[in-house]
Design goal:
The chain contains eight helices and seven strands, in the order H-H-E-H-E-H-E-E-H-E-H-H-E-H-E. The protein is an alpha/beta fold and 227 residues long. A seven-stranded mixed beta sheet has the order 3-2-1-4-5-7-6, with helices on both faces.
Length: 227
Amino acid sequence: MVNETYYLKVRRDVLDAIPRDVTAVLSVGCGGGETELLLKQQGKIVHGIEKEPAFRQKLEAILDRVIIADLDHDALALPQDFFDCILLADVLEHVQHPAKLLRTLMQSLKPGKYFIVSVPNIGHVSVVKNLLLGKWDYTAAGIMDETHVRFFTLASLKKLFSSLELEPLAVRRKFVPMLYENARCQWQKKLYFRLNRLFVFNLNPLLHVPRIRELFVYQYLFILKKQ
């Protein structure tokens, strides 16, 4: 049974990161296609890769092409030098061999065009705190999602992309000091939301201190250019 709340959401941060000259998009791990539908409404060519067969019918009604595949085990039949932009929104942490996947996808990306990659930060203060307490506990969602098989910091992401000669054009940070998934009830979630806003807006100087600010980053979003 697919947990649709996990898949059915629009990634506004990803949409905002897509350069304006993009016309053909490949979305890897496209879920139910909510984000991709908005791209289609903008007149873009959109192909999608999704692991869950339950979404096939819905995706085929939205996208120009749908591939149902397991990224760790299935071969991907993709056109060469076809896409202007490839989206990997919270995907790399779910695959056994991220570098291998990126190399495969690079073959279908035009030279000088873009990857948009978002990845959770395992260096978040909540994880560091738990490690100091001797804890490594998985959760149903979030940074410590029980389905994650790879973990990344800012430095390890930069190293990965550099090894593939992908040029970072921008790195965007999502600051979330207090994780919502740690809240036990609705009032705690609301409290954490307000405290996070206060932290980001009122303690802004702290977020400009190198190394320290990375402790409060929930997720990194890279805009990368293929050489």
